[in-house]
Amino acid sequence: MLTTIRSREQEFLQYIREMMHYQEVLHLLFWDVRTGAPKKGLGLRADVIGTMSTKKFAMSISAEMKTYVEELSQAEYYQQLSPITRKVLEHAKKEYDLLIKIPEKEFASYEVAKANASAAWEEAKHASDYSIFQPHLEKLVETNKRFIDYWGYRENPYNALLDQYDPGMTVVRLDEVFTKVKAKLIPLLHRTQEAKSKPDTTFLGAAFPVEKQKDFHHFLLRELGYDFGAGRLDETIHPFAVPLNRKDVRITTKFNESYFAGGLFATIHEYGHALYELNIADELIGTSLCTGTSTGFHESQSLLWEKMIGRSKPFWKQYYPTLSTYNQEQFHGVGLDDFYRAVNSVSPSFIRIEADELTYPLHVILRYEIEKGIFANEIEVRDLPEIWNQKMQEYLGIVPPDDRRGVLQDMHWSAGMFGYFPSYALGYLFAAQIRNTMRKEIKEIDQLVEEAKFTPIKQWLAENIHVHGKMKDPDQLLLEVTGEPLNSDHLLSYLEEKYSDIYKLDK
Amino acid sequence: MLTTIRSREQEFLQYIREMMHYQEVLHLLFWDVRTGAPKKGLGLRADVIGTMSTKKFAMSISAEMKTYVEELSQAEYYQQLSPITRKVLEHAKKEYDLLIKIPEKEFASYEVAKANASAAWEEAKHASDYSIFQPHLEKLVETNKRFIDYWGYRENPYNALLDQYDPGMTVVRLDEVFTKVKAKLIPLLHRTQEAKSKPDTTFLGAAFPVEKQKDFHHFLLRELGYDFGAGRLDETIHPFAVPLNRKDVRITTKFNESYFAGGLFATIHEYGHALYELNIADELIGTSLCTGTSTGFHESQSLLWEKMIGRSKPFWKQYYPTLSTYNQEQFHGVGLDDFYRAVNSVSPSFIRIEADELTYPLHVILRYEIEKGIFANEIEVRDLPEIWNQKMQEYLGIVPPDDRRGVLQDMHWSAGMFGYFPSYALGYLFAAQIRNTMRKEIKEIDQLVEEAKFTPIKQWLAENIHVHGKMKDPDQLLLEVTGEPLNSDHLLSYLEEKYSDIYKLDK
């Protein structure tokens, strides 16, 4: 009997490993399309991506998968499984259940609806005409509501969606933290706007030759210890990190001659994502657990590096002198403090992905509230532009001049990604909470950063967070690492302290 | 009935299309590994390549494939199929038969034997010790002999192998042409060696900055009309062309600061391969016919561009003045004629892939004769080093100082690729024969090349050769294009004329 179980367990793990091989292929296809696949081949390439996605999808709901899930879940089998296999099984079962509950026909027509919605969204955004997108969005929303009925949910239908990105996250918990965040950030934003001493950002727009920027990015990545034997840096329109496998995690960035800061912080951000994937335990290689535990946790690791280390004063004490040698004229007469303040300047803006650290969470909360309202049947899709603009006025004090820079700016809804946005804000909350613990446990952390000694920080993150991959759920991980559940105080006091300093606000 | 046939035909074509999607994935994985995939991830990547190869392989011998082949081959079905489907079916059936005749167990152990042989060959080559490789090569040869028995063959067992690379090619035909080639080239080589006026090649070794070389390669590819919207140029150790799909055919080259010519002609060579794939008829997209008709024919297209256009005097009349501006010092005092002679200089050398146009076919014939002898049971694997060196002495007048630069230089045998080498020489023969016809049909072709007017040449090649893909077999295609079967006279007179001029030989 034990032999049978062991061999079934191995067969199951091999089956999962093959699914992960499809995933590596899909990630490579994704990377290739964005980093320079010839344009004319993309139409035919799309069919290849379709075939590979379909194959992977078919494996997650196959009769074979059903047998594994049912068989290995039986008590006499389950008790014999290794802890890793149990967790892999749990994930496989969860995915299987999500997919199998939806009638095949509805699933297929949803895929078509998403494709149509994406095309309509592109057109609508280009024309800045919400009415082109609206019927498509309505259809996707209706379909998701029906899916939620098939799946079932606890307390709130929207929870079923949240759970797919940050397992365990609920409306009740988000409402609690986001209310506090709004209550603190909106007044703090006003105080920065009214501050007398504002950062001078004009020098940021000076020309910085792209080749020089590239050199500096490479220099910085080597300083941070990004392993070019297990990754590479390429250029794309939207920067990203993509894990091909546990020893091949690639990042991309962008280069704008007249705004070097955008690409520079994007590189550090993506480095944070990559570091997470590169530090996962060897024993999880080839399993579905070999990735970050949730969307929000992943974002916490990129934000920790980009915002909390990469935009900190100790960091630039070390690197500003070097940076200035890469483009001397631009930084002539700009002191360290001027530089530090400029790259942390705050300004309400229309576009989420261009927002600063202080206004960014407000962009996300706006989207969260809209999604929550939609799935509680309290908001109609046709009213989104109006609601969007009202909330922009309320939270950021500005109203987008058109829907292109408003409700139509993000691709998420057109791809059916409802419940994703909150993860971006959770990233900030997790990051600040983790930072708080890290500062207690690593002595003189600012000194270490100032001396470019990142090893203790990287080791701490690896041992406490990265190594676990998906073996620990986000809730459990956050509790184990920080000793408390989600707590917005850490983000709020971090922001209060940092921006009071930068804007020289009265305490 | 007709509806059933049409729908079965469409299902079959869809099945083939999926196989081609796996092929695109495999080609992308290949390209990625060579152009810059992070080294540390390659171990895990190998498993992904293994899974994808296995999936594609499984599709070619599946029960589903068997049903398609059997069903569609029946007369009442077959008569209703489109000409394209018939040809696709023919290829699928041929592959199915080749694979299915080999007992599954033997196939699996052959895969292991090849993997072991490859590793042993690497080690043997590094140590320049044939004895490390010999037992592995013996095993691969024995296995292939057994496979040939399973497959059956006409006239000569070796024909079964030749047919897999250049369908229809036989020992009788190769013996005939290769005997003539040897009889002509060996004395011609001697005459160049005894010539009083030899090209001065010293300037070729001067430093040519790599960035400048890259710029010139890009310039030249644009001149030739390589479509960067449907391809790209990257750098690899060994240059290659790889079709991802019909509208995405990528090439690679190499850059050596102290030998620009190697990379330059590699780029033109790979351009020739890419042009073939990019010109195949739209209606063959997604079928197994959407590639060159044979290994030898593919090589003919690369050689035509590299050797017969790219190393011709009219070509450099146009481009030498431009080339010299990219690295003025190097070409100072070197006239057009000096340049033309230098890049066509002849010299017997040990390594096939570094050989010139005149000695290259002799390298291939040597390998052909060895393979032929092995499969006729006239040559023992243990005697290869000795036979190799004897033939090198006889054909090229030089003997490799060690097996690394002799019998161990190529990877083909370690990968079980017996019957492949002749295609390289066939490439020369096809190219010269095609060139002969093209020169008759395109008026003032030298003038066109000299004026950088490549369109008529490209159009002629596209219409007569490229567009057909695998719809026409190589024999048929050669006959239709040139009006005669394989004829070595064209290569021999081309070489005689060209090298008599370059070495100022008495006619």
TrEMBL record, chains A, B:
InterPro entries: Peptidase_M32_Taq. The keyword Protease applies. It catalyses: Release of a C-terminal amino acid with broad specificity, except for -Pro. Its EC number is 3.4.17.19. GO terms for molecular function: carboxypeptidase activity. The keyword Hydrolase applies. The chain crosses the membrane at residues 411-431. Gene3D superfamilies: 1.10.1370.30. Keywords: Carboxypeptidase, Hydrolase, Membrane, Metal-binding, Metalloprotease, Protease, Transmembrane, Transmembrane helix. PANTHER family: CARBOXYPEPTIDASE 1, METAL-DEPENDENT CARBOXYPEPTIDASE. Broad specificity carboxypetidase that releases amino acids sequentially from the C-terminus, including neutral, aromatic, polar and basic residues. Belongs to the peptidase M32 family. This is Metal-dependent carboxypeptidase. It comes from Brevibacillus reuszeri. The lineage of its organism: Bacteria, Bacillati, Bacillota, Bacilli, Bacillales.
